[in-house]
């Protein structure tokens, strides 16, 4: 196993640890303040989509290879901070509980909002 591979593995796993802890903290605060974690997960997905696109725009062509910062920040930290599996389960749970308006709102805001903030983040990152 090469040292380059180990550095990459460390970059992704350490970023992933931090991202997962941040997501857990935001979900816990959301649950404490609102009685559910939906809004915390929505915030994580929107801010993570924005941050991922912003960094992608900022770092494009600016990092030497190997780019450990990209692996740490984007693949590790933001990859574990956003959570499509939790979003999917929470949306399904709302629909199964017949909370159709809230489920639809959550679904729309999560998808459209993530795409919108990703677009904004990408453009902002490219302009900086």
Describe the structure.
- The chain is mainly alpha-helical.
- It has one domain.
- 85% of the residues lie in helices and 0% in strands.
- The chain contains five helices and no strands.
- It has helices at 3-34, 38-59, 68-81, 84-96, 100-127.
- Helix 1 (3-34) runs antiparallel to helix 2 (38-59), helix 1 runs parallel beside helix 3 and helix 2 packs antiparallel against helix 4 (84-96).
- The termini are far apart.
- The mean pLDDT is 91.
User: Which geometry do the CA atoms define?
Assistant: globular
How many independent structural domains? Answer: 1
Task: Return residue spans where pLDDT drops below 50 for at least 5 consecutive residues.
Answer: none
Oligomerization state:
single chain
Query: Describe the biggest sheet?
Result: none
By DSSP, the count of extended strands is: 0
Beta-strand percentage range: under 5%
The DSSP helix count reads: 5
């Amino acid at each position: 196993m090469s040292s380059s591979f180990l550095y990459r593995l460390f970059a992704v796993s350490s970023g992933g640890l931090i991202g997962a802890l941040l997501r857990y903290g935001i979900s816990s605060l959301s649950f404490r303040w609102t009685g559910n974690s939906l809004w915390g997960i929505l915030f994580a997905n929107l801010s993570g989509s924005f941050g991922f696109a912003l960094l992608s725009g900022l770092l494009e062509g600016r990092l030497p290879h190997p780019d450990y910062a990209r692996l740490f920040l984007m693949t590790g930290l933001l990859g574990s901070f956003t959570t499509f599996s939790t979003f999917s389960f929470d949306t399904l749970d709302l629909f199964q509980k017949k909370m159709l308006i809230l489920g639809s709102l959550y679904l729309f805001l999560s998808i459209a909002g993530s795409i919108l903030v990703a677009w904004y983040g990408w453009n902002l990152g490219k302009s900086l």
